[in-house]
C-alpha cells in the first residue's frame, strides 16, 4: 500500500506526553497515531453504516404505517392484552404443588 506523510503542528507538551504514552505501550508515536487513526476511521464508518441501516428501517416502517393493507390493532386492545399478560406472569405458579 502506498504511504503518505502526514504533517501537523501541536503543542510541545502534548507531543512529549503522547510520546511517553506511546513508549509505555512499546510503540512509537507514529505507530500509536496510526492505531488511533484506524480506530477513528472504523468507528465513523460503523456509525455511518448504522445510520444508513436505521434510516432504511424507519423508511420501511413509515411505508408500512401508510399501507392500508396492513392490519391495525387498536391501542386499547394491545394495552388490555399486555395487562392480562402481566397479571398472568405475576400469578403464583402451580408447578411445585401436587
Word description of this protein:
This protein has 98 residues and is an all-alpha fold. It has one domain (12-90). It has three helices and no strands. It is elongated and about 65 Å long.
Let me know the average pLDDT.
93
What composes the largest sheet? none
The number of E-state strands comes to 0
Q: Between the first and last Cα atoms, what is the distance in angstroms?
A: 73 Å
Number of domains: 1
Structure classification: mainly alpha
Low-confidence parts: none
Strand portion: under 5%
Radius of gyration: 28 Å
Summarize the amount of helix as a percent range: 55-70%
What key attributes describe this structure?
0% strand, elongated, 98 residues, mainly alpha, 68% helix
Structure described in brief:
With 98 residues, the protein is mostly helical. It is 68% helix and 0% strand.
Write the layout of secondary structure elements.
Elements: H1 12-24, H2 29-66, H3 75-90
